[in-house]
# Entry
Amino acid sequence: MDNQSGKIQRAIICLLLLVGGATGLKDVKIKVPDMVRSGDDALLSCNYDLESASLYAIKWYRGDVEFYRYLPKEAPSHTVFPVQGIKVDISKSDNHDVTLVNVSRELTGRYKCEVSADAPSFHTAIKEAPMEVVDVPETNPTIVAERQRLPAGETLRANCTSGPSRPAPVIKWTLNGNHLNNDTMQYKVQSQRVAQYEMEMTRASLELKISSDLFQDGRLQVRCFAEISNVYRDSVELDVTEDAPLLAPITGDASPHSHHSSGCGHPVLSETHRLILVATTMVNVVNILRVSILR
Ligand SMILES: *[C@@H]1O[C@H](CO)[C@@H](O)[C@H](O)[C@H]1NC(C)=O
Ligand SMILES: *[C@@H]1O[C@H](CO)[C@@H](O)[C@H](O)[C@H]1NC(C)=O
Ligand SMILES: *[C@@H]1O[C@H](CO)[C@@H](O)[C@H](O)[C@H]1NC(C)=O
# Structure
């Protein structure tokens, strides 16, 4: 066979394949949840357009291991292959879907669906997508602050720690129900993952310069959210109280530190300070009045 006729022959084969392809399989799409909670069911779907052909087989794999096969023209049409950790609900599985029940972390991996058109083309296509099974935290996040009472102008320091999970949650903060906004406040957030046996926790810190306009009726709510994609979300709130702002200049001993040691546990003391402040102001007003009357 000379070179020329070889080329022609190949062109004809390609043409035949193209024509055959027109009545074959196209638009194969796999849909697998990115993340699913362990213990839940997972619905995996495969959609395709067979045009005028009929379906010969649909096969599902985790990695390269086949666990489910559907052959519409055979009886029985479902076959489930034993694979460690995989339980298929046949009543919720068909020529598009396969339903895995009570999934566990070990089922994290890449899933494939393989679709084959019937004779004569037996056109076959494979699509794959990852799925991660999440062990969510069994405990709520916790929040601790260096001080829970502080005046405007000072820096609030708080830490938030999630419960252990796989993978670790992301920690986000809100202030009075709003996201931290770097145009209207000065803050710094940091986050790190901490290994805990086979799990991980996220430990995050917030440093926020407190300005008086952040307080609403003398209070400020800081909330910390621990989230894993759309499968887990839990939060905890911390109430911060505004401390009387003019204390330090009036009572010489009320430096931020000595105030800290007495402030949190003894609101009565701070109330006393406020009374002193009011009394001092009254005396000043009386003095000013006296001066203007004397003139
Ligand atoms: C789900 O699977 C776990 C093991 O992965 C097992 O301990 C549990 O009993 C199962 N739950 C149900 C409802 O089958
Ligand atoms: C927050 O965490 C950091 C580092 O982990 C620690 O140094 C600091 O004391 C913690 N702050 C509070 C209020 O617990
Ligand atoms: C604040 O906003 C600017 C501009 O949007 C951004 O580049 C910067 O990273 C932000 N800083 C923080 C701490 O989020």
Summary: Residues 144-146, 157, 159, 205 surround 2-acetamido-2-deoxy-beta-D-glucopyranose (ligand 2) (CB under 6 Å). The CA atoms of residues 212 and 289 lie 30 Å apart. The chain has four helices and 18 strands.
